[in-house]
């Protein structure tokens, strides 16, 4: 998500206006007498004084609307930076003159979205819950957007990063793949995996296993306790799962990973995290959602994984820069919501370094007045030296200065800061090169952010200025940078506590990293000590060393999530609550099958190892309270580094066998009813009104333990339906085995044709997962062999690029009643891979960006396709049918243009046919990635009803009709 955009040239009008503004304020004249002429530890240079005064002039001269605009955006819009030596606005402006922003509103309404679209904005993410819209907007429209009464603030888009530690330092230009190159690589890996799978037996299929499985004794724990993750759903949030299909084809991941539609993301860190979880807890169900669409979307997805996808264990490896160290913000609040509901939440502690290893770039403490006024209007600089002297700068290490996000937070409540602090970055010559100086006058966040130059610099230094207000406790972090004594005599000041945000939520587990196998392959900075190696093929022990980059705690917090002070009246270094973070340490530096993640270093790799061990605990102890899981993980951790609990490894490194020995664990059975077979007594092929039928109901034990005393109670809520006998014993069912019994059902003669009979199968057995209940819907009536066709007959509808708004078309359906079968086609007359073709059913230059959804009149939804097909172009004469031989999820760009018959992502018949199907259906398409375009042109529904008894004197057959030439299902 950390994107770099070229800064466009400002117009002559803006530059001239900026020059006039500065001249009018007397800010292009020589500096005032007595101003410093060179950079000294306790003074600003003449140049810096002029620059800061000019920036303050913009700040003090803001209109009401401009006061709601991010300071960097405003300076860029006015062109002020062009008039000031060495200064960059810090606004990421595209070559098209647009900026990515987060619009914080009182409420997201259709009027707001429509207004943004009219202003030329591209909508990227929308959160109704948090009143937040991420959009790409023209820079010259920012102030107009802020002028709306329902807009609280327009900010540069809050950026994020994962906690993966890269083998290549940030000073080395990255070799980035183009979208097409990535698609070609992933498609090649998928084809290779499919070909290899077809050429070997299942027994010969070799998969990669994380060395963390061995180092954490998870392999021994599974063998000793017989638990594998059964009955637990573990879900991850990260950047994306681009290579999910390839990992599944290789056998590295199971076929049924639950990815929230439209939240597949971009990148592969999520795929690598899922592989780690699967290695340690191979029978846990898996899920995923992206954390990278926006900060509010991340918070929404945390909640969705728990409350919609029913995840028991959730893990992420992401930090958003705006996350407050001093109060739980929206992401931490989402974590609080899911942990209060019983979920276990694990998050990377971060790779921002620690004081013990001298790798950090973090200082926090009370503001100290240096007595040095700043600029022309107001402000005094902070003194980092405190009682030891007077130093208004914090020096940044030259070797860790490239593209570093630097955040400043202070101890005011979120959304209610009336104390105004600003942040400046200066070079060795004393000139300001970057800044952040937003207004805080009572309704804003206590937060400023800037970024160091892309390729770093020599002698960079930070200054914090209190523009107005009271003294507050400050937190200054150079994320992945380092504070280090400078060549010209500045002393670096570092304090512990760089772990911030949702990983520091009270009930979250913040996870540090220790290498499982080989040492991290490069020095963090030239001259650093060697990085530690791990114990593989042995297990972690008291001699284990943490990664030198792992972040330290603790975390001081001043406010509850709702803004209530924890220590009213004291928001200084003696107030608030101190949270012991991180809590535990787990493995990194492990292998996965994912390109670029072998080995996989960073607390990004550590957190899923811890989550997987927790999944084993829950698998062997269903319903174990989260407090007892926490107690077990912390009390059994092997103490490493400093004796006793320390602030960068927590209680120590966890071992799965010790944790399970502490909690106790036993293999649990999980007996589940499967799809029944129905045999009518009259020998007919269908279950009709008035029929009596045999129902053969299989029950499979999907668990680790033997299901004993297994029985089934079969009932029906459908009026008039009888079931005999009501219950039957299935006896003992071994793991992986299936038991079968027969029941008899009678359907009343009054049962409406097409209205299904619902059966509820409640399976009881000796085990903590008992009982399990499964519902089955049995169609009543003879399915019609004739499909009625209903086509979209309107004009093509453009699909907006990279927008959750998407595009949709309506398909009216009449005269069917109940449906026995639904298929869906994307039609067309002539198929090609020309992305501008007007003769295909859906033209698009990158089908792998698309998520297609079909919605029935009842409101029921089914995902038809979900980010499949890579860079392949166009869908044409393709039928999505539940009985198709192959799933559309297996296609690659080589299959384009996509034609033929394919299984949809979710079944169409059943989920969409629970009620009468007459009414308006909707087919919607969302483009979930940037850079490509297309349109919905020709689509159709094909619906089979039920054979109606012929009326007296009427023919018994019904002929369907065809509109707009749709493709008939195969």
In short:
Helices cover about 15% and strands about 25% of the residues. The chain is of the alpha+beta class.
What does this structure look like?
The chain is an alpha+beta fold and 970 residues long. 17% of the residues lie in helices and 27% in strands. It is built from 15 helices and 46 strands. It has a seven-stranded parallel sheet, with helices on both faces. Strands 13, 14, 15, 17, 18 and 20 form a six-stranded antiparallel sheet that branches. The radius of gyration is 31 Å and the shape is globular. The N terminus and C terminus are likely disordered.
Query: Could you tell me the strand content as a percent range?
Result: 25-35%
Shape, principal axes of CA atoms:
globular
Q: Helix- and strand-based class?
A: alpha+beta
- Biggest sheet character: 7 strands, parallel
Cross-sheet strand order for the largest sheet: 7-8-6-9-11-22-25
Report, as a whole number of angstroms, the end-to-end distance. Answer: 43 Å
Helix content: 10-25%
Oligomer: single chain
What is the alpha-carbon Rg in Å?
31 Å
What would the average pLDDT be, to the nearest integer?
A: 91
Number of strands: 46
Poorly predicted runs are 1-36, 952-970
Number of helices: 15
């Amino acid at each position: 998500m950390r994107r770099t955009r070229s800064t466009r040239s400002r117009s002559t009008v803006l530059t001239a206006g900026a020059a006039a503004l500065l001249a009018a304020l007397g800010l292009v004249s020589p500096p005032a007498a007595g101003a410093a002429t060179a950079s000294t530890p306790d003074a600003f240079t003449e140049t810096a004084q002029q620059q800061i005064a000019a920036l303050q002039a913009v700040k003090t001269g803001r209109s009401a609307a401009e006061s709601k605009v991010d300071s960097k955006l405003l300076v860029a819009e006015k062109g002020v930076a062009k008039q000031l030596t060495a200064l960059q606005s810090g606004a990421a402006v595209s070559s098209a003159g647009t900026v990515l922003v987060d619009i914080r509103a009182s409420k997201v309404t259709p009027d707001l979205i429509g207004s943004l679209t009219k202003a030329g904005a591209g909508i990227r993410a929308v959160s109704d819950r948090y009143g937040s819209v991420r959009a790409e907007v023209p820079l010259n429209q920012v102030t107009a957007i802020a002028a709306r009464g329902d807009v609280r603030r327009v900010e540069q888009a809050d950026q994020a990063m994962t906690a993966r530690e890269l083998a290549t330092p940030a000073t080395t230009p990255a070799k980035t793949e183009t979208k097409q190159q990535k698609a070609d690589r992933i498609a090649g890996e998928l084809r290779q995996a499919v070909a290899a799978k077809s050429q070997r037996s299942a027994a010969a299929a070799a998969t990669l296993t994380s060395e963390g499985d061995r180092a954490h004794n998870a392999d021994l724990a599974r063998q000793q306790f017989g638990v594998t993750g059964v009955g637990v759903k573990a879900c991850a949030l990260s950047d994306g799962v681009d290579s999910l299909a390839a990992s599944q084809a290789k056998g590295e991941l199971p076929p049924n990973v639950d990815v929230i539609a439209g939240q597949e993301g971009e990148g592969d860190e999520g795929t690598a995290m899922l592989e780690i979880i699967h290695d340690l807890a191979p029978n846990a169900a898996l899920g995923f959602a992206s954390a990278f669409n926006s900060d509010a979307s991340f918070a929404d997805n945390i909640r969705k994984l728990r409350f919609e996808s029913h995840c028991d264990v959730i893990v992420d490896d992401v930090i958003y820069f705006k996350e407050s160290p001093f109060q739980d913000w929206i992401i931490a609040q989402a974590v609080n919501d899911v942990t209060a509901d019983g979920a276990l939440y694990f998050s990377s502690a971060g790779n921002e370094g620690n004081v013990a290893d001298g790798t950090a770039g973090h200082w926090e403490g009370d503001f100290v007045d240096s007595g040095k006024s700043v600029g022309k209007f107001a402000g005094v600089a902070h003194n980092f030296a405190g009682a030891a002297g007077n130093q208004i700068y914090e020096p940044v290490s030259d070797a860790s200065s490239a593209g570093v996000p630097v955040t400043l937070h202070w101890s005011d409540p979120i959304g209610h800061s009336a104390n105004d602090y600003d942040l400046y970055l200066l070079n060795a010559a004393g000139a300001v090169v970057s800044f952040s100086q937003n207004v805080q006058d009572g309704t804003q966040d206590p937060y400023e952010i800037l970024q160091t130059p892309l390729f770093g610099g020599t002698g960079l230094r930070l200054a914090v200025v209190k523009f107005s207000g009271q003294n507050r406790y400050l937190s200054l972090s150079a994320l992945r940078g380092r504070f280090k004594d400078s060549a010209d005599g500045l002393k670096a000041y570092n304090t512990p506590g760089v772990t911030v945000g949702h990983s520091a939520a009270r009930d979250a587990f913040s996870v540090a990293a220790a290498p499982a196998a080989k040492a991290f392959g490069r020095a963090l900075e030239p001259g650093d000590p060697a990085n530690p190696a791990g114990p593989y093929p042995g297990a972690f022990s008291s001699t284990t060393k943490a990664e030198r980059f792992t972040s330290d705690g603790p975390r001081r917090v001043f406010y509850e999530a709702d803004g209530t002070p924890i220590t009213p009246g004291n928001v200084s270094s003696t107030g608030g609550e101190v949270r012991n973070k991180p809590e535990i340490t787990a493995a990194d530096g492990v292998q996965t099958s994912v390109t670029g993640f072998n080995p996989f270093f960073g607390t990004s790799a550590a957190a899923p190892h811890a989550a997987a061990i927790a999944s084993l605990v829950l698998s062997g102890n269903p319903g174990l309270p989260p407090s007892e899981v926490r107690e077990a993980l912390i009390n059994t951790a092997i103490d490493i580094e400093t004796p006793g609990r320390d602030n960068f490894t927590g209680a120590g490194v966890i071992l799965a066998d010790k944790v399970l020995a502490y909690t106790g664990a036993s293999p649990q059975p999980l007996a589940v009813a499967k799809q029944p077979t129905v045999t009518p007594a009259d020998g007919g092929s269908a279950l009709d009104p008035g029929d009596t039928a045999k129902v053969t109901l299989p029950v499979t034990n999907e668990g680790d333990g033997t299901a004993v005393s297994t029985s089934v109670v079969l009932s029906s809520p459908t009026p008039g339906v009888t079931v005999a006998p009501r219950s039957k014993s299935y006896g003992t069912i071994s793991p992986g085995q299936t038991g079968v019994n027969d029941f008899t059902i009678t359907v009343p003669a009054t049962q409406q044709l097409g209205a299904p009979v619902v059966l509820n199968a409640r399976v009881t057995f000796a085990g903590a997962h008992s009982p399990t209940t499964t519902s089955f819907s049995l169609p009543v009536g003879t399915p019609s062999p004739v499909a009625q066709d209903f086509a979209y007959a309107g004009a093509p509808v453009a699909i907006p690029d990279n927008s959750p708004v998407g595009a949709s078309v309506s398909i009216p359906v009449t005269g069917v009643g109940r449906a026995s079968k639904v298929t869906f086609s994307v039609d067309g007359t002539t198929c090609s891979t020309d992305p501008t073709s007007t003769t295909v059913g859906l033209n698009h230059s990158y089908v792998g960006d698309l998520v297609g959804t079909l919605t029935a009149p009842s409101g029921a939804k089914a995902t038809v396709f979900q980010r499949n097909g890579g860079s392949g172009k166009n869908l044409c004469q393709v039928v999505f049918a539940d009985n198709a031989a192959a799933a559309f999820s297996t296609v690659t760009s080589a299959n384009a243009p996509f034609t033929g018959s394919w299984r949809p992502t979710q079944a169409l018949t059943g989920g969409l046919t629970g009620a009468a199907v007459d009414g308006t259906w909707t087919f919607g398409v969302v483009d979930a990635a940037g850079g490509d375009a297309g349109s919905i042109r020709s689509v159709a529904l094909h619906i089979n009803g039920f054979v109606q008894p012929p009326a007296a004197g009427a023919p018994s057959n019904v002929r369907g009709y065809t509109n707009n030439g749709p493709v008939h299902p195969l």
